[in-house]
Amino acid sequence: MVVVREICEPQCQALNLSDGQRCAAEATAHDRLFCRFHAKQCFGLYMGYKRRNAELDALADNEPEFLRNSKASLASQTFEDLTSQSEVAEVHEYLFKQYVLLGKVIAARKIHHKHFYSLEMDYGHKAYLDKLVNTRHSVLKALETLERRTAQLLYKKEKWFDWVRQVQDDEDENREKVQKKIKLEAAMFRRHWREMEARLAAAREKEEKKRQEAYLEEVWRERMAAESGEESHDDAAWDPIEDVFEDDRGRYLDLIRHFLWMDVPATERDVVEPSSSPVPAGASRDSQDKAGGSGEQDAAEGGGDETPPGQIKKPRKWGGKKKKSKAGGGPETTNAVQPKQNAGKPSQEPGPNKSMIESKADVRTRLKEGVEKDYSHIDGPMFMLVGTIQNPEETATRTAPVKEEDAAQLIAEITEIKMLLFCRQIMSHSALLPAALRANSVEEFLSDPSIADSDLRDLCLKVEQPSLQALRDACADFVRGDETEDEGNADEQDNKADRWSVEEYIRHHYRYGDLEFHPLSDALSPLSRKALPGSDGLLGETETGRAPKEKKMKVKICGRSIWNYASQGSMARAGWLHFSIMAKDCTFEDAISLCRNWDEFFELNILTLWQYFPASKWTGWSGNHLTAELTQLGFVPFYMDFSAQQNTTYNHLTKVSRKVLRRQAIITEARNVVAAYMKRNDPVTRRFIQYALMRTNELFILVRDGKNGRIVVAPDEKHRWIVRSRRGTADTGYDGNEGWDVEIEAGPLLFTVAQLKGQCHFNFTEYYEVYIWDFKPGEKPLDMYHHIHDSLLKALRVRGVRDKLKHIKYIMGSLTREKDTMRVRQIKPGENVQSLYDELTGPNAEFYIKTNQGFAVRTKEDVPADISPYTFYNETDEAEDAVLFKEESLKNVPEDMPFVEITNPIRELEVMHSPLTLLNRNIEELARTLPPELEAALNLERARENKESRATLSYKPGAEQFPFAVPPIWEQAHRVIRDTVWDMGRTLLTVKLAFTSIKLKLTLDELTLAGKQEVMERDRSYVYKDSFHLADLEPGAQERYKESMRLIIGLQKYQSPRVRDHIDWAWFCMELLDWLHLKMYYDEYNPEVLSPWPHRYILQDIVQAFMMMGLFFPGVKETSIIQEYLDSEEGKSFRGSQIFDLASRCARRPDTRSRASCGKRPRKFWEQWDKIYAGDKYFVDAYPKDWAVAIRPIIAKLYRAGVITPAAREAVLVPGFATANTEPHRPGQLDLFIKYNNLHKYAEGLPPSYIEYKDYPQLLPAARKFAQGKPSARFALLRLWSAPHFYPLMMMLNSRGGTSFLDPAGRSWDWKFIPKDAPVSEWSIHNMVLLRLGYLREQLMGLGHDFETPRDKTRGPLWADTKFGGQDKFRHGWCELDERVVHRADLVLVMGEDERDLLKWCTAVTFALQTKPWLREVDLWKSFVNMDLEFLEELDPYWLE
């Protein structure tokens, strides 16, 4: 309507209450300020708030007794003293009435000033208004506190009360300020402008009608007043505040109903076009705000006063940029706040034509027609296979349509979920909870007049923008209904299993501290100690402050049950289906972050890969077929860098100046790297990690625990580089001394980068972070994919193509695909349709398999004949797994055990890089002094009483023996010798042997002063021998060794009750040392590796040698103490041991392979292997299965024992191949034999003193010669212990490549000790015995240690004054040893004129063989001591080889 006025005609300055536009009528009243209508309205409004002010003042005089007597201010009131419901009701009635009056007074004053006197500023009015706002804020806060107290009095006995109170407390902590809520309200109304147009049109129509009625009524009243002579007093009728309040409340209720898809009255549903013109697309932000009505300008004008005057508003800087909203445009069913966005921020792009909430019709259309798939959020190249069962052409670019009946059912269920979501939002609001508990329906709740408008505003904001977590909880509530689930106490058990002892934690940080974000050195620093209690210090998040698990309970709100554990457990797939429809703009990565455990995530992932959800952005990893394949197998990549080929360069610069060349990277090498998640404490994950650890010739693996950030396993530091470069001049060569500059390595920096660039993140901790990178730089990405894929197949124990879906059968077996729509859906109860699993694994299913040669084979067979028989899991893998994962076969062992690296004594020594004895003692001291607050923060516990240590983490070398103390049997003898007066000869002997210098036990300080090498070699001897015997695979050998060690150790611990009667054994040992020109104790250590003395442990070695040999000489006087032990209670169990039965032992040949090296075996022995190696196929594919079944467990046992280790060496550089074969003395028993192809290299490096095995001395002729003329001659065959497959001779690190080998699976292995199959291995052990006997010979001749002159005057000239070199250094003249001792490889023949003489020589030889470096032992079970010649001649020739 166009109003024509004269220019001079004054216009009404009032603003319409309906739309805020200036009135166009002529100003005729109030000094021509307002029109007649607005003059009446202004006066009525003024009188109204004056009247309410009077009511407010009168209300203060009738204050309840509780508030009148309370000393606390209203804002700080807790109402804890209110104990009866009547008192609470009285106070609540008073405060609520005060709150309503204050609201109406404030609103009336604001409207009066804004709409009638907006051009004037009354500072007194503004100050009074601020006072009212502060008072109202205090009353509102008191009301909320009183509501909480009311709920406590009414429902304290309810099971759900504590849980609801916790939810409310959490909500109160995150509650926005009042000013922010008003701005959010304004933004919400702008977003839903179209829904509010109906109410705005109705308000305009009502105001216009009232204007017309006002004119007619005014004329009538004037006429009636003139007739009656009375003045009109109907000003209250013109007060619009009640209509304003009713309209505001109606707007909130209408928006809530619109959000919840509830019916709206028909009069309000009709949309009337607004009078204001639409805003052009290119209009400015200010013009949009003006066109939108109550925009941010209204919020600033009306809402600014809601801020308490004590708070200062921050002015906006001119020229500053506004933050852009991250929320995507377009409609969505529920405007769920994305986790990656700022929750609660108002939209910065209101747009009057945009609706944030879809209607039922919109959702139905979207489901029935499908939507375009959105792949824009996927990083990197896409590689999709279209046309497969998993990804049909019909659904490659668009989601499958949903049938009408299914869509109708989904919409009906979503409607109910919206109600549950609404109830969950109410539950967190303490002021609304009592009304919600009283109401039996949502409509009844909305009709409750006791609900304040501000509470409705807060609720409206919550429902309009729920969080994804709240939406998920509502979906879970709907799926679970009134039923509960018993989830057990798995979390508590898991937490208990994760608790480490202090010693374990410290030991772990000695090994992996450099890879963790809080190394032990930082954790023990004073700074971090101060940061421990309740702070984000260096230690990061711990589990000590975690709240206990809540008890399952529910509360009924608006007639619907809400469970407290909906967000704690897994949500069923039906709930995720509803969620994907309601939060349609949510990405799959956001959905992942809402999963509560791995099983829920994994099922959600599989359903997404098979297109179960009709969501456009839930494409997940389906954009990359290779990634999707790994994910389906349980390996979830979140970071990948496959740029190794591009970044690996080898620049050969020739004609360049040296200055330029030094700055140029001649070589840059890069490795591909993949970071992925795998399920924590899962058998498949444990197997995969173990398989990867054994393939260091292809890849390296590092594993972090997602629960606590600890390193589970990692390679050595030298293998952790990802990108490295080498610089230098051309004359330095590529193997120069400048070394490599590591630019990127596996460590904390890589962990951080991977997490920042990661595609998905979890909110649970039930996972491992697995980092894998190539062994070789510059490899193709597909090579790594195949390595990971093949290992996953073996870890899942997939025996054929159809077995690849076995682990997800519980998911795929309940899904079907509709043939007409190609939609994947749940199979309904009682429905007879083909499941996806049956379709994929049926007999007619066809598969494409890629062979090792790169060809694709189309087949229906599980294991096609064209591929390698070792592609899938078979009996060879099963045999190996029985050794690697032997705990799986044990009873009462849970499947959810954490991964523990296979370790052994040798591995423990190697990774610690320090003597274990010193390390253990330092750890014990550190554990005793660890601050209690640090111990609690690290979630540690003291050492376990039940000895539940992780593998060998608490391994102590020689714990049952005497590594740094003399045996107790010598301590007893020592006291007797020290306290007894002896004759002159024995007294002088004690002085000569330094008897008084003996230290019975070395302290920690003495060990520290002794030096690292000494303690390390002493520790190493016990460590190696423990691993040696773990690798002894001869049947019964380990049990026999344990029996012999129990006998020897028990004898050394024996305390004789008649020690003085048996003291001769001690003098025998002392005289023997004097005979060898050695002392009993040296306060020094010879660092030469081969030198057997001097050292501090001479006494321990000679005592052990005597006890071992004395077992077989019961008739010699000096061994009486041994016989006493065997007759005692401690030793009588050994009397019947077969170790003393020489005849029985020699009659049984050991069940073990022969010791011949590969070069000494006939060519026919290797004939079958040579055919395999020379064939067309790769030897791994052509390897006989029976061979693999036989030797892979053997290799696994050697690996577990620590004598072999996975080699980081290319297969082409490995000289050996593991084969299987039988021998004549063991027909039908396949054993491990290694064929080496580098025999010529060994022949080139042999020393001049090398002799062939056939030329070794023959023992029987030497014994016969010695026995001539000696009727009492006795003999002993001492054989050094060796395992069936190796000798106890160390392999230096730089020599291991010469004996490495490939196993049947193509994995590279290094020997740590000389294998018996190595070329000329016989010479290695023969030469070692030669050297040890040479040192003994040197001592006997007076050429060894402790001789100041080259001639021993007491013994006379025993050698020629000549020089010798090389291996002949011990062949200098004649020695008595030459006619008493003869050796052949590892077998030593010792000869004596009688038993005592033989005991002396056997003890001396055993002492020489077993002393420093303490790695060799005489095998008592394969030695024959104290024999006559006849017995020796009757021995099987095997025992003389």
Short description:
With 1441 residues, the protein is α+β, with helices and mostly antiparallel strands. Helix content is 43%, strand content 9%. Residues 270-360 are annotated as: Disordered.
Descriptive tags:
single chain, 1441 residues, alpha+beta, 28 strands
Structural summary, described in words:
By secondary structure, this protein is an alpha+beta fold. Mean pLDDT is 78; it is low at 1-6, 229-233, 266-355, 521-549, 653-658, 729-737, 943-953 and 1347-1372. Among the domains are: 360-488 and 551-598, no CATH class; 490-539 and 921-941, no CATH class; 637-788 and 894-902, no CATH class; 968-1146, no CATH class. It has a five-stranded antiparallel sheet, with helices on both faces. The protein contains 54 helices and 28 strands. 37% of the residues are buried.
Strand element count: 28
Q: Which radius of gyration do the C-alpha atoms yield?
A: 45 Å
Describe the strand arrangement of the main beta sheet, using strand numbers.
4-7-12-8-9
| Shape call | elongated
Q: Could you name the ranges where pLDDT drops below 50 across 5 or more consecutive residues? A: 1-6, 229-233, 266-355, 521-549, 653-658, 729-737, 943-953, 1347-1372
Mean pLDDT: 78
Tally of helical runs: 54
Assembly level: single chain
Describe the biggest sheet?
Answer: 5 strands, antiparallel
Strand content: 5-15%
